[in-house]
Q: What sequence folds into this?
């Protein structure tokens, strides 16, 4: 898997880290998918928005579910300075 963009500084909210721990996942699993352009469980419109954002330097949003069914978002800022793993309720 090759990186399609820079993650910048990576951070996660406490609730997202707890969900990852409870389900036995590593944050790296979801960061690898995100950086490779696997946007996860987003609809076709959001997939296209992300593909366009790669070309135009806009924010990127991926959505995934843990093995326990908890939804996670991974958001990379438009300037690629940072990426955050969070729960939708953290937003």
A:
């Amino acid at each position: 898997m090759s990186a399609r963009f820079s993650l910048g500084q990576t951070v996660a909210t406490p609730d997202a880290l707890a969900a990852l721990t409870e389900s036995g996942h590593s944050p790296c699993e979801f960061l690898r998918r995100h950086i490779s352009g696997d946007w996860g469980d987003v609809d076709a419109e959001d997939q296209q928005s992300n593909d366009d954002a790669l070309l135009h330097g806009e924010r990127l949003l991926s959505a995934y579910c843990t093995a326990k069914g908890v939804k996670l978002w991974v958001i990379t800022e438009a300037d690629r300075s940072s990426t955050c793993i969070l729960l939708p309720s953290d937003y």
